[in-house]
């Protein structure tokens, strides 16, 4: 048999069977619960309890006032706006305002997001362009440095070749001048000791000519040696 629990005032009571419920004199709004219900329900929501409700009559004073002072109740005409009741109109109006505000806000937010995305995309493009430009500049610097290095190396090689060629020329000139110097010394010895039919002045003139020639060769040899030494120093610096 089903057992019922009642909530009257601030207390729960029960369990009661149907006959005991009838004695309790419950009303339609009395909270009731029985096993199987998820939550409490009013008694009027339970089919088998509809026959046990107590009908409470209105106070007799109300009846007396109505019979003693019978006045016609004037029916107040309900105010309508655009065919809608006042409350309904303002509810619909509030809803439309919120809807429009939501649409406007979403539109603004989307526009702002698109603008931000466009700016980010532009910034990304500019950053990529900057990176590419810096890469090109670095490549140009590397190429220019390599070109300068090759040009410097070419100039040094040309200078080295020029110095070496000049040293070869100097070496040949030294050989020639040394040979001419030896020949002039031999002639001087011959002229100084050889007796011919000539005057003392003629002999001295020949000796002077040969001595000048020897001095000229010595000076030339000295100049060539100094130049050779300077060129060799330059070669050491180039290396």
From TrEMBL:
Keywords: Coiled coil, Membrane, Transmembrane, Transmembrane helix. It comes from the Bacteria. The chain crosses the membrane at residues 89-108. The keyword Transmembrane applies. Residues 4-49 form the GYF domain. Residues 108-162, 200-234 form a coiled coil. This is GYF domain-containing protein.
């Amino acid at each position: 048999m089903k057992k019922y629990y009642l909530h009257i005032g601030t207390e729960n009571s029960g369990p009661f069977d149907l006959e005991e419920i009838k004695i309790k004199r419950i009303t339609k709004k009395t909270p009731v619960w029985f096993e199987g219900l998820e939550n409490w329900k009013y008694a009027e929501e339970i089919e088998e309890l509809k026959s046990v409700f107590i009908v409470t009559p209105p106070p007799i004073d109300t009846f007396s006032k109505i019979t003693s002072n019978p006045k016609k109740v004037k029916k107040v005409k309900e105010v309508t706006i655009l065919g809608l009741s006042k409350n309904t109109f303002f509810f619909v109006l509030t809803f439309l305002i919120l809807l429009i505000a939501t649409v406007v806000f979403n539109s603004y937010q989307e526009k702002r997001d698109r603008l931000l995305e466009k700016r980010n995309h532009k910034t990304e493009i500019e950053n990529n362009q900057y990176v590419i430009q810096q890469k090109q500049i670095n490549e140009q610097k590397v190429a220019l440095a390599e070109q300068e290095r090759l040009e410097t190396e070419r100039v040094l090689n040309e200078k080295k070749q020029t110095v070496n060629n000049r040293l070869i020329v100097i070496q040949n000139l030294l050989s020639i001048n040394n040979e001419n110097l030896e020949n002039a010394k031999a002639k001087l010895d011959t002229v100084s000791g050889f007796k011919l039919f000539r005057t003392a002045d003629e002999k001295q003139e020949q000796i002077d000519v040969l001595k000048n020639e020897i001095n000229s060769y010595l000076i030339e040899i000295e100049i060539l040696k100094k130049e050779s030494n300077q060129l060799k120093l330059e070669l050491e610096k180039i290396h």
